[in-house]
Amino acid sequence: MSANPNSPDRPFPLERTRNIGIAAHIDAGKTTLTERILFYTGMIHKIGEVHDGAATTDWMEQERERGITITSAAVTTEWWQREEEGLVKSFTGEKQRINIIDTPGHVDFTAEVERSLRVLDGAVVVFCGVAGVQPQTETVWRQASKYKVPRIVFVNKMDRVGADFDAVFEEIKEKLGANAVRILIPIGSEDDLRGQIDVVNKKAVYFVDDATFGSTYEIKELTEEQAAIADLAYQELLEAVVSVDDELGEKFMMEEPISREDLKLALRRATTSNLIIPVAGGSAFKNKGVQFLLDAIVDYLPSPLDIPCAVGMNPDDEDQKIEVHTSDNGKFCSLAFKLWADKYVGKLVFFRVYSGVVKKGDTVYNPRTRKSERIGRLIRIQSDQHTDIDACYAGDIAAMVGLKNVQTGDTIAAVGNDVVLEPPTFPEPVISMA
Ligand code: GDP
User: Fold this and answer.
1) Quick check: 151 and 124 in contact, CB under 8 A?
2) What residue stretches are annotated with the Tr-type G domain (predicted)?
3) Which residue from 141, 96, 97 is spatially nearest to 123, judged by alpha carbons?
4) Which atom of ligand 1 approaches the CA of 160 most closely?
């Protein structure tokens, strides 16, 4: 495998891509959270261009009416991480790409759910801050555990009467047996939900009401009371990470100083290996805490380079296993995970690239049909529009137009690259609908 997985002409490095799903018990707020994420990521880079609140609201309303992106199989968003201090209105960090893949159905253990889970590298699981862990949430949780999807939890609806972040946090540990740690603790609750304590960075983040964007916030030093909460959570977090991460564990044993960066990296490794679940609290509906959830997605969920490589087999010899490494320099190999009939564009085949690069106009091979077909267009779904792209790189997600003989689950590869990605092993239904 080549040392550098990035080709020189890709727009930005692979390590800044996240492929995530959002999973939730029905009514916990998956749609609202997805919508808010799309709002912040779809519009945030236009801050300064949109001058009045109406534009934003209209955009949200249009989205809601049309429901285009929210119901799409995969949406590509971009996010700039925050600054460290003060009133934050602009975003100057490095650009991150977050592909949000729709994980259909709440309880239906179908092949479709499995297919979309296979192309995720991580998930945000949404819990209701009032209802906590409900039987249906346990189902969603078990499903993600079964496929070893790295997760972070967002405890939503912290603005609602009766919301109790700590109670939900305890339930996550007790009922789900999760090795959970708090990373963003709400400041206040119900009508008084004012911000979040950022445990890792030991800062207070206050939501600043901003009718235009709703996305302004202020980062401040912790008050004494908040510092006590943060210290306790930090200690718990450190102990949890040290006990599962050898590298950090060794530093701890040797009493070497552990920097925040060390801790962040180790927490990321632990989340990626499903050893630790970071938990954040906020309210999607009130736009409170969503931006920091986006930061947490980038900080603690894996990039396509962090996950184990995909495994395929030779279609003529099933015993011959082929490792498919995430790199632009490999031969093109992708998985078609969703077909979508679009009324303007026609049949879209959503795919995830595991290795190599595919370009518009390329002829690609389907080992199931043993046929080659030409890609007419490559499309990315971005905010509310289809954007034509020239190429799609390793680790990324987009849609092909022009292929006729594709089924979901098919491997689509370069001509001459005889590989079939492991077929999904469909689970037995766990729920009986009696
Ligand atoms: P889904 O079924 O998981 O997709 O849930 P929805 O996003 O449709 O939300 C269910 C209901 O909860 C809707 O009426 C939302 O407006 C409401 N809701 C979602 N998030 C929040 C929140 O953070 N606070 C409050 N108060 N209501 C919320």
Assistant:
1) yes
2) 15-305
3) 141
4) 26
Highest mean pLDDT among 133-137, 160-164, 419-423: 160-164
Calpha distance 116→398 (Å, rounded): 14
123 is in an annotated binding site: no
* DSSP notation for 301-359: SPPTTTSPPEEEEETTEEEEEEEE---TTS--EEEEEEEEEETTTEEEEEEEEEES-EE
**Of ligand 1's atoms, which has the minimum distance to the CA of residue 126?**
3
Compute the Cα dihedral for 32, 38, 40, 41 and give only its sign. Answer: positive
Mutate to test the pocket of ligand 1, among 25, 30, 32, 283 (most ligand atoms within 8 A of CB): 32
The interface pTM score, or ipTM, of the predicted complex is 0.98
CA of 276 to the centre of ligand 1 (A): 27
- Candidates 140, 150, 200; CA nearest to 20 is 150
Distant-in-sequence, close-in-space partners of 225: CB < 8 Å, separation ≥ 6: none
Predicted structure pTM score: 0.88
The token pair that represents 104 in the structure block:
């259909």
Query: Cβ neighbours of residue 58 under 8 Å, at least 6 residues apart?
Result: none
Helices (H), 67-222: 111-119, 135-146, 165-176
Of 9-18, 35-44, 226-235, 287-296, which gets the smallest average pLDDT? 35-44
